[in-house]
What we know:
Layout: H1 11-23, H2 54-57, H3 72-95, H4 102-115, E1 119-120, E2 133-136, E3 139-141, E4 155-164, E5 167-176, H5 182-199, H6 209-222, E6 225-226, E7 232-234, E8 241-245, E9 261-264, E10 267-269, E11 275-277, E12 284-286, E13 292-294, E14 297-301, E15 306-308
Helix pairs in contact: 3-4, 5-6
Amino acid sequence: xxxxxxxxxxxxxxxxxxxxxxxxxxxxxxxxxxxxxxxxxxxxxxxxxxxxxxxxxxxxxxxxxxxxxxxxxxxxxxxxxxxxxxxxxxxxxxxxxxxxxxxxxxxxxxxxxxxxxxxxxxxxxxxxxxxxxxxxxxxxxxxxxxxxxxxxxxxxxxxxxxxxxxxxxxxxxxxxxxxxxxxxxxxxxxxxxxxxxxxxxxxxxxxxxxxxxxxxxxxxxxxxxxxxxxxxxxxxxxxxxxxxxxxxxxxxxxxxxxxxxxxxxxxxxxxxxxxxxxxxxxxxxxxxxxxxxxxxxxxxxxxxxxxxxxxxx
Length: 313
């Protein structure tokens, strides 16, 4: 789950975009342009499920301002929550198909979370209405599950976070639905490779800025760009906290140390870097209708490198 958003655009940007389209529409490939659909009522969280405080009022606890160094006991709990999130994401990947609505995906995520005595972390986080984020094609991030059926040729990022035994585990993956064109396949493959290669940089005393500097250059080599307003983040008993992980070239301070846990989750785009936040205050659409791809892992910095916590068992 990405926390940073930017309301870039509105009526003025749409006017500029329309002018742009009339002159020369870029060829981003073959796919359907997505707009937000109808959102069903919130699901029920049973009484026996432990709930974070924001379940009641939508206001999450503030994460630490400096990166937390976790104890061995905290790391054990992080491993458990991250593994569960990864297993649910794998189950979604085994199930998602043409004709399934994103609301059906969300119900499945909700069901699996509850069955495993976990709370779906996005549920009522800052009043977010669902248990996962489902971002299809030109939805760059924070897509709210709705009644739109998936079509052959779609790509969909499913972002899952669970709160289990007091700790959050966060991961996402972009799936190919049916017959995806070559440009879409290349975007998804590049997005996954940028994440996986950037993780190899993670070790004690490495600057956080090395992640973004590497990812932006690697994305450019693949022919894509980074949407800069979505960040990785520290994670633990809190959903979001220090450090901020920028996915573009930067010189922000801070170094990795053993015991730190954080997400890396770059959003690659075929086109321009700008997004438009919709009236629901969450859904981010690309300003030029380009597709985006995203993959996310939660990592732990160890004494001699790092461990990917969000691997399915």
